[in-house]
Amino acid sequence: MKSIFAAISAAALFLSVPSFLSALTIWEALDSDDAKAVQQIISQTGFRINQKNADGETPLIIAAANGDLDIVKLLVSKDAVLNVFEYEYKYYYNAVHAAAAEGHLDVLRFLADAGGNLTAQDKDGWTPLILASQNGHLDVVKYLVGKGCYIDASAHNGETAISLAARNGRTDVVRYLKAMGAKGKIPEAAAGGLNSPTGVKSAKKTAETAAAVSVIPVTSAAAAASSAQVSSKAATVSHETEAAHVPGDATLAAKVVQVAKDSLGLKSVPEVNGKWFRSDCIGFVSYCFYKAAGVDLWSYAEGGSDNGCELVYTGMNSRGMVFDAKTARPGDIIFFNNTYDFNGNGKWDDPLTHVAVVIDKIDYDTLVFIHWASGAVKEYHINLEQPRTAYLDQKDGSRFTLNNWLRKNEGEGYPDSAYLASAFYFRFARLP
Hints:
Elements: H1 2-15, H2 19-31, H3 35-45, H4 59-66, H5 69-77, H6 95-102, H7 105-113, H8 128-134, H9 138-146, H10 161-167, H11 171-179, H12 200-211, H13 221-226, H14 237-240, H15 250-262, H16 281-293, H17 308-318, E1 322-323, E2 333-336, E3 354-362, E4 366-373, E5 376-382, E6 391-393, E7 399-401, H18 421-424, E8 425-429
Antiparallel strand pairs: 1-8, 2-3, 2-8, 3-4, 4-5, 6-7
């Protein structure tokens, strides 16, 4: 009887094991690629399927990185969130990033078919295509390009799939990307043969070292809140030098800003001396420049796209007017990706879908921009120093908006911060 009681007690103890103990158990099972053990832990301990370990990784992310398709299928069948991100950690990425970085094409295909986002960017702007190219996984690169992933998407430090493939001696990937029309710059000393180890984190560390670029740290919301009484205007000076190579006309900028401000609340974009403008984002920005100084943005348009934003961006970029920075000046143009489903395929793979005019720079490095949204001209905020924070609570009880919501959350599975204006930022542009 004693042995039976002991057995029952042991079983009861196992079934009521605290979540932090069950979490340790499942991580061990994942490391061992033990699908049966993972299934038992989930069914017997009530383990929360999207719980994260100390590094911020969910079971699905680990299984995808390990290339264990059986466990990946099991976790997805148990409602593991495909596109969860590690927003509170140094790096954040999802299962698709992990599979692409490690070259597990079978896992990547399954995740894509299950609704995984093949074009998602992490906090540093890395996409699955950039990771696969960096690590030399040609089969994965071909698959992602074939699925319509933007071949020239760039990380926030300016690196692209082809530049990182070149830096790391992935010549087969470079040849393929060039053949597919990649326009990213290939570093002169690209054949240095860094041959970094695979993996999201190790790949990014190697690339950061190789690129020798200055990565501006993201200021935490807590730190910003603690200094709520201090203006951050002085702090923006060092970032502004990132765009110093793009000269600007201060008089033109001031006129554009005034036209944009005077347009707030309009429900249609007006004509100017008989010239008609579309009542949409590119139409409004074009109106601001034409009304201010007779500058026709459409004169810069290049390419054969049916996307007006992309046409204007392409022309401005070829003329050296485009730059990537953490801040901008009043009168600058700001371009966004993925603000809506332009191609109608239900995925976040829509480059250059929105454009706006920067009108001011205020506290905490926050930029104020005016744009056409939902049938009217509106004013929003964007903060690229604190890209995952919507607002800061002030000591007087008010809230200071850092980032407005730029896209409606329709249950795609992304965290709320993925819908903030900063999440969709692509590039700035400045007219000389």
